Amino acid sequence: MLIDCNSYVGHWPFRQLRGNTCRGLLERMETYGVDMTVVSNLNGIFYKNTQHANQELHDEINSDKRFAKQIIPFAVINPVYSGWQTDFETCRTKLGMKGIRLHPIHHRYELDHPNCIELVRMARDYNLPVAMSLRMVDARTSSWLDVEKEWSLRDIIPILKEVPDARFLVLNVANSTALSDEELQIFRNTNLIMDTSGRNMNDLGQMLSQFGQEKFAFGTHAPLLDSRTGLLRIEALRDQEADTKTKNLLRFGNIKRFLKL
Question: Gene3D superfamilies from the xrefs (predicted)?
Fold first, then answer.
């Protein structure tokens, strides 16, 4: 079994994407043997009103019975946009969203912003996980109109401290993973999963040793990244780094437990 904890539908303004609909997503999943995937709508990064993107995702999923069985929708919520509390309630109660996704870099707020803290606390209270990408695309090859800022693991420490009992998906870990002993302990004590799509997962064996095998899950970041690399990082683990049981935790076990599937 394979569960991808990091994928998208929708458009990226500065790059042509392929397979960026629910139908295209399922075709790609069938090609690579993926059974279920966590999905949010890229359009929510760029629409002024992110709720339009959440409604688009909801409508597309409900256009075909197959989609609802394999797609786990996450809502994009912007806590510095007017009406975000209503958006959260609508996504939770009417649109069937199973988690929320934050894009602080593109929506221009810090993780210690009072509204962001309130939103994460609301998600915690309703038992919804919170997903954050440390980067969306490589700033070195991006359009001059795109956002160049990228985060490291250390940059998300503020929200982990503010809401330590929330559930966090930390995605596309592409930059520094260096942490102090105190910061590392915060990561270990938080109900948190990092996906395998990021560039800094190239030494996944060392990351497992540092953070613990329960802290990682298969993710692709598709269609912005390819659909195979995130899995190859798991399959390439040596026997002394991960046995079959550990690899199954990474393929599906950890995220299945985390999402309570």
Answer: Metal-dependent hydrolases
Q: What is the mean pLDDT of residues 59-87?
A: 97
Residue 194 structural domain: 3-259
Dist. CA 235–CA 226, nearest whole Å: 16
Q: How far apart are CA 135 and CA 139, in angstroms?
A: 9
Instruction: Tell me how many domains the chain contains.
Output: 1
Per-residue pLDDT, 149: 85
202: domain CATH number is 3.20.20.140
Strand partners, 74: 99
Here the tokens at position 84 are: 């975000």
Element (H or E) spanning 68, and its range? helix 65-70
